[in-house]
Every structure is written in C-alpha cells, then in structure tokens.
Write a structure and sequence with these properties.
Distance between the termini: 124 Å
Order of helices and strands: HHHHEEEEEEE
Length: 188
C-alpha cells in the first residue's frame, strides 16, 4: 500500500482551500491575543505588594548579622551550610600531575680490596710411583686419564712438578706461580 501524499496535499490546498487555511490561522492568532490579559489595576496592586515586601526585607536585614546577609538576600531562605569539599568555582582547573619520586640516595660503599687470586684445587690424585736409577716416576690420575710425570714435567700446560718435600709431591700452578702440595702415601 504505497500512498503518494504530495499529489493529494497539493490538490486540497489549491485555490479556495489555501485561502480558508490562511484565514483560519489568522483567526487563531487574533483569538489568542484576546485571551492574554491587558495591563490593568492588578498590575498596580502587584507593584504595591512588591514595595511592601522590600520594606519588610529591609527591616529584617537591619536585625540580621553581617554573616547572614547572603541568606536574607535570597528571599528569606534558611542558611544552608557549605560542604567542605565543594569549591566556589565549579569549573576550576584540576591538575592530575604527580611529581616524580625523589632520586634515590646513592651511598658509596667502600668495597674491600678484591681477594688475592688463588689456585684451584689440584685435579690430580697419586696412584703410585716407580724409582729407577736416581729418578722417580709418579703416576697421577685425573678423571679417567693417567699421567706419568717426573720432576720438572709440565702437565696440561698449567702445572709443573717440582719434586717431593715433607711427604708431599709439590706442584706449581703456572698462571699465578703458586705452589701446591699433594700428599704421598699414608700420612701416619
């Protein structure tokens, strides 16, 4: 059901129909003006009551302290206490800036002098020895490897065999030139 309203409206308001609508609208405006009251004696009475109200307010104001002056100016409304969190300016600026935390205090701690470097523990254990013609051959074990060494030999490029003293086979750790000993036999 598709209606074409534009064609029907133009037919109804053509010629006499349009004039009748305009006169009806004019009559409506004039009738509305007649309903609105014109200025009369009631207006004078209203002015007179306003003057007496002002005089009453003036006499009340004289008896009220200066702090309540604002409340009496508002047509005799009671004083309402202000809220502590509300400011007078409703649209004042508010900053969300938070200052950065203070810089940490850097304390200089006196560090002790670094400890003197030491040699690692000897990685060898003595398996035994063999003597032949003024020369002693020592059999040493490291993990699954067996070394045969005599005095003056260098093992793995880091240990030198120095000989026997006080029941110990003496080695020198070459990177730090530190002497170390390995117990030979039973210490009893």
């Amino acid at each position: 059901m598709n209606l074409m309203l534009t064609g029907n409206i133009s037919k109804k308001f053509s010629g006499k129909g349009r004039l009748l609508a305009l006169f009806g609208l004019l009559a409506l405006v004039v009738g509305a003006g007649a309903v609105v009251p014109a200025e009369t004696a009631d207006t004078a009475a209203t002015v007179e009551t306003a003057e007496t109200a002002e005089m009453k307010v003036a006499t009340m104001t004289a008896s009220v302290s200066e702090g309540d002056q604002q409340a009496q100016d508002n047509a005799g409304l009671p004083v309402r206490p202000a809220h502590a969190g509300v400011s007078a300016d409703l649209f004042n600026r508010q900053s969300w800036y938070t200052p950065p935390p203070p810089a940490p205090v850097v304390r200089q701690v006196r560090q002790a002098a670094p400890a003197a470097p030491t040699a690692p523990p000897l990685p060898f254990t003595v398996m035994g020895s063999y003597e032949q013609d003024d020369e002693t051959l020592y059999f040493l074990v490291k993990g699954d490897r067996v070394f045969d060494a005599k005095e003056g030999d260098i093992l793995e490029g880091t240990y030198r065999v120095d000989g026997v003293s006080n029941g110990q086979l003496r080695f020198t750790y070459l990177p730090l030139d530190i002497s170390q000993g390995l117990q030979l036999g039973d210490p009893r």
